[in-house]
Write a structure and sequence with these properties.
Blueprint lengths: L1 H25 L1 H9 L1 H57 L3 H26 L2 H24 L6 H22 L4 H4 L9
Helix pairs in contact: 1-2, 1-3, 3-4, 3-5, 3-6, 4-5, 5-6
Length: 194
Amino acid sequence: MNNLVRRVAATTAAVALLTLVACDVWIGAFRAWWDRHSLTGSVVASLLVVAVTALIFDEIVARRQRRDRAVSVAVQALIVYGQARRAYGTIVASGDDEPSSSGAAEELRMFASMLLTASPNLFDDPAARSFLGQLEAFAASMFRMVSARSRGGPTADARDRLGSELAQLQASVQPLVARIPTEDQSLLEGSDQG
C-alpha cells in the first residue's frame, strides 16, 4: 500500500508540474496571472520541483533497496534449503540404524536453529513466505520420521511422503533462486539442487 501511495503522489506531482509548464507556454492569460502573482508562482513551482525530486528519488532508492533485499532473502533461503537437504540426506542414509540417528538428530537441530534465525527475514517477502511454509511442513515431517525410529522405524510410506515434500520444497525455492545472479549461484551452499 505504501508503494502505491508513493507512486501516486510522485505521478500527481509530476503531472501537476507538467500541466503548469504547458499552461504557462500555451495559455497567455494563465501566464499573465502568474506574472502578476510572482511570489505565489515561485512558491508553487519550488514546492512542485521539491516534491517531484523527493518522490522520484525516494522511489528509486526504495526500488534499489527492495532489489537488494530480495537477493539477500533469496541467499538466506538457499542456505536454509541446503541445510534442509543435508538433514534429509542424513535421515534417509541412516535408515533404521539407531547409532546414525544421533547424526540425523544433530542435523535436525542445526536445521531448526537455521530456520528459527532465518524466519523473520523470510516472512516479509511473499515468495519467501511461501517457501517458509513449505520448509516448516518439511521440518515437521523430518522430526516425525526421526522420532518414529525410536518407536520401531518409519514406514516406506513415510519415506515416500518425505521425498515428495522435498520435491515440493525444491519447487518453492526456485523463484528465490532465480533472483540470485547466475554466476553467484554456484558459490552458494545448496545451489546444486539435484
